[in-house]
Write a sequence for this structure.
């Protein structure tokens, strides 16, 4: 079984575990959702012995089992003894997003069937903390659509030489709405001239050419992009050396619609030209203009 061939998908209820399992199934993984953790080693053994040569497996597990942690960590230790390498994908989201999703689906939280959803979320976060700490990939789906989650998983689990390269996720955001929870590096571009104060540009975004030309015409912008690009290129081999498989870069301005978007688009283009795997997400670009 390949190093990418055994994937455990877990995370907070409502964060997208079932969606992730379906995406991996579409990528050719043999998927089993809600497998009891103590059955993981036996299932892995059956896959190794299969005449059909099951080389790619994805298992969805969650915190609903009473003895979840005892069994899951014992099972992971057994996999290691069996010589099976595995990846853990952990899906999370902010509390308000999880509450909204439970309300939209009218579901009760599995850890608080008779109580408040927030109580269930808090209990689940505490129960899942250790597994999250062991995760190979942590994906925050707070602002993701199912299509964006699919894109990120497809990039992570691409075949061939892409597996050896660091996955770089660039997230733009507005500081007034908070930093991305999973950011490893954050760059503040609020020092750049703000298109919001140009009446003809206010309703546009950094994806549009008129805003892009405005932001990039200043020498300080070009100087900043060069320095950030060089810094990231310097850091990447050191991150890889330390075993890091993904890097989340936050680029923020006041509202997350103009400067940060243009800078992130340019930075992504520069990194892709250097043959890096780059995902790009504009978290606040569709939010109301409330500068």
């Amino acid at each position: 079984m390949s190093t990418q061939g055994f994937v455990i998908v877990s995370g907070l209820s409502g964060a997208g575990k079932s969606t992730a399992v379906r995406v991996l199934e579409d990528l050719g993984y043999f998927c089993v959702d809600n497998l009891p953790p103590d059955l993981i080693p036996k299932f892995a053994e059956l896959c190794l012995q299969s005449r059909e040569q099951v080389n790619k497996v994805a298992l969805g597990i969650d915190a609903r089992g009473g003895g979840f942690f005892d069994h899951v960590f014992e099972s992971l230790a057994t996999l290691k003894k069996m010589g099976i390498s595995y990846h853990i994908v952990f899906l999370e989201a902010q509390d308000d997003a999880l509450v909204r999703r439970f309300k939209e689906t009218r579901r009760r939280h599995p850890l608080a069937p008779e109580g408040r959803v927030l109580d269930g979320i808090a209990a689940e976060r505490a129960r899942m903390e250790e597994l999250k700490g062991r995760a190979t990939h942590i994906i925050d789906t707070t602002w993701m659509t199912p299509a964006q989650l699919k894109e990120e998983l497809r990039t992570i689990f691409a075949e061939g030489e892409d597996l050896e390269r660091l996955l770089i996720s660039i997230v733009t955001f507005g500081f007034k709405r908070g930093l991305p929870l999973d950011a490893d590096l954050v760059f503040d571009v609020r020092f750049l001239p703000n298109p919001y104060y140009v009446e003809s540009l206010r309703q546009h975004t950094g994806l549009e050419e008129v805003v892009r030309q405005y932001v990039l015409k200043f020498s300080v912008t070009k100087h900043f992009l060069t320095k950030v690009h060089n810094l990231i290129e310097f850091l990447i081999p050191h991150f890889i050396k330390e075993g890091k498989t993904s890097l989340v870069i936050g680029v923020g301005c006041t509202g997350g619609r103009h400067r940060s978007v243009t800078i992130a688009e340019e930075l992504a283009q520069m990194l892709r030209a250097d043959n890096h795997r780059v995902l790009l997400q504009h978290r606040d670009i569709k939010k109301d203009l409330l500068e």
Observations:
- The two ends are 52 Å apart (CA to CA).
- The chain has a mean pLDDT of 87.
- Strands lie at 6-11, 30-33, 57-60, 87-92, 137-140, 167-174, 185-188, 246-253, 277-282.
- The longest helix spans residues 219-241.
